[in-house]
């Protein structure tokens, strides 16, 4: 069972896809959002949840007071599920069905204060690097925070010239990197 950890809909459950996604565990989301709230980048933020999967990260941000959340997911069934979860929770978010790279290659409607990337484990390092490069090029505010979540066994992302890593955390089998515009 996947639940929203805190905020206006804390404790409410999320429906998750039967296969094809790996929702961020409740424990990792709790630690991650504790760190993000300490950094002051959630409340009132413009948030991008890229590779949204079940939508757990973006919906958590919306529950915790983000001003606007855009969730991008390429799998149509997962994107439809995110829409149903948002509606069931009464959270107003934008869900985009499409590839992250295609979305980021378009015009940025609003710069993001927080970008959450939790790609599938089988996503190649090159595709992640392309997404980070596009994100850094035109999608971030000067004080933005970028979070990349991967398996503990995954290598650190290849950061483009426009991003600089400032922290790394490990939570069991999960590694989380934090970066900011360089």
UniProtKB/TrEMBL annotation:
InterPro entries given in the database record: RNA_MeTrfase_RsmD (IPR004398), SAM-dependent_MTases_sf (IPR029063)
Top-level division of the source organism's lineage: Bacteria
Enzyme Commission number, as recorded: 2.1.1.171
An example molecular function term from Gene Ontology annotations: 16S rRNA (guanine(966)-N(2))-methyltransferase activity
Keywords, in A-Z order: Methyltransferase, Transferase
Enzyme class per UniProt: transferase
Parts forming coiled coils: none
SUPFAM superfamilies listed in its UniProt record: S-adenosyl-L-methionine-dependent methyltransferases
CDD domains: AdoMet_MTases
Any single Pfam family the record assigns to this protein: Cons_hypoth95
Protein name: 16S rRNA (Guanine(966)-N(2))-methyltransferase RsmD
């Amino acid at each position: 069972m996947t639940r929203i950890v805190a905020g206006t809909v804390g404790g409410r459950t999320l429906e998750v896809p039967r296969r094809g996604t790996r929702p961020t565990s409740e424990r990792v989301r709790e630690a991650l959002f504790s760190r993000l709230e300490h950094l002051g980048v959630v409340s009132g933020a413009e948030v991008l949840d890229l590779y949204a999967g079940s939508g757990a990260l973006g919906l958590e941000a919306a529950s915790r007071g983000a001003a606007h959340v855009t969730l991008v997911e390429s799998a149509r069934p997962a994107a439809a599920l995110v829409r149903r979860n948002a509606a069931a929770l009464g959270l107003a978010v934008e869900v985009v069905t499409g590839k992250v790279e295609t979305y980021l290659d378009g015009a940025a409607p609003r710069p993001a204060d927080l970008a959450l990337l939790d790609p599938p484990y089988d996503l190649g390092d090159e595709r992640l690097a392309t997404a980070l490069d596009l994100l850094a090029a035109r999608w971030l505010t000067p004080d933005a925070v970028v979070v990349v979540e991967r398996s503990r066994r995954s290598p650190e992302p290849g950061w483009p010239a426009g991003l600089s890593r400032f922290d790394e955390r490990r939570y069991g089998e999960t590694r989380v990197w934090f970066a900011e515009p360089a």
